[in-house]
Predict the 3D structure of the following.
Amino acid sequence: MSIGRRTFLGAGAAGVAGVAAAALGAAPASGAPAARRPATAPREAPAEPFALGLREFAWSRGNRRLTTRVWYPATGTPGGSPVRDAPVADGVFPVVEWSHGLGGNPEVYLAEILPLAAAGFVVPAPVFPTTSNGTEGNIQDVYNGNQSKDVSQVITNTLALNDNAQDPLAGHIDTTVGVGVSGHSLGGMTTHGLLTAWPDPRVTAAVPVACVDMGNPTGEVAAHTLFIHGDQDAVCQYGLARQAYGELAAPKAFLTHVGQGHDEYVWDNGRTGAPTGLLLARTGPGPAPARNRPRPGTGPGPEPARGFPPGPAGYSCAVSMKGAAFVRARQPAQKQQRYRAILDAARELAERDGVGEVSLGDIAGRVGMHKSALLKYFGTREEIFLRLAEEEWQVWAPRVVERLDALREPDGAGRLGEDLVAETVVDSIAERPLLCQLLAYAPLILERNVSLDAARSFKKATWRAIDDVADALHRVLRTVSRDDCAELLTAGGIAAAGLWQAAHPPPVLVRLYGERPLPGRADRFCAVDFSAALRRFLQVHLTGLRHRHGAPESGGDPRG
């Protein structure tokens, strides 16, 4: 199929997807680099977009930490925000990796990443350990090959998920067609390095955006390649990208954003790969035919195909932005992407630093926008975290319901009654630290500075989650009424909020608790085991509920 095969793609990812669509199907991809196979015909693409899922992996290469976000086609209704750990859609999907630029992170490039996943690609995007937001900005890790090698490791780990029977992506990743790679600025240089100085033969499609020449091709990689560059780029010189293009063998193409600099065509406006005014010209010695040159007045810059090196055919594209400054997130899909990026940034900062330590300015800086712009999406800082709390309830409830329903089957350890139920509920809460934090912050702070709509949405999600889990508890604890099960969960949530804070004291209390000797029996209050304490609370509360209604206190078989 041609470059236009995914007609529902937003323009921001159409260039990447088009090259990937044309190339993926030409070479094998496995857990390790492999020799390239003869080209095969690309397979039919889906006619409609997918809903989006998102997972995060704590991978590494040696001592380099490679936190990697993976977006993928998911079940559900297309057009919404990515859902963390959503079920994978039916099908087998190729891999296209994305590399961020200096001082960035994957969330900055959602206008490029999300349309790829919606189009049927698995999109791993690493957070590079020395060039991402908040790091020292060591660009030598691009020039010495560290980042290109990082990407190869991420590709290996992503493809390996297909063979891990315990992973939700098992059987859903196409490991036979090669992989695509793309990135912007330092990420574009990382991408070009995979074609040249640090080759990865698994790469069959590449889209380096705003890159410079990272070395000479070795012939080990045979990829369909699309270069994208602004001809007024003062950061990564246009001529160096043209040089890199000239050194690569066909099939290849070069898209020029006429009159544009380093990143105006990237941020938010979705014009990276297939903007309006696209003019195609067959390359060859000498200037392009006049009919294929930009029309007078369409913008400054060189003629699109003048001076292309002779040799194997390629394609050149010149794009006129018609002098317009880029516009931030005006289309609904772009606004949704920015909305999601704000939530993801707040989540990441809260999980790292704690909810109470994250300011509105921190979130805005992480996303790469001004606080005043962020407030167009969320009225207050508290609304951001209340929305995250809503999402946490929505993710937690179906998971614990599934585990509770499993208790109705024989238990290999022979454990019965409230002990096993309490353990199951506590484990499901303890594995979600952000939920534990937000249980305390929601009633004390978050609910007190939000709009009525935000409060309504949060409360509905909370009530629905408690109802669903109470129903599941009642199915297991048949002698405990559904209302009592809801009471147990409500009390447990309040207890969890306080116990989590006690089990994770601030630095000044950590210092105090370290002093010896402590007066009286103070030691027992200084080392709170969250899971053990909450489990004991639920066991005692459940025993009281049974006693109130004259039911057996303990040891009853939850399976009836």
The domain at 11-218+228-239 is CATH 3.40.50.1820 (Rossmann fold). The radius of gyration is 27 Å. The first strand starts at residue 51 and ends at 61. The mean pLDDT is 78.
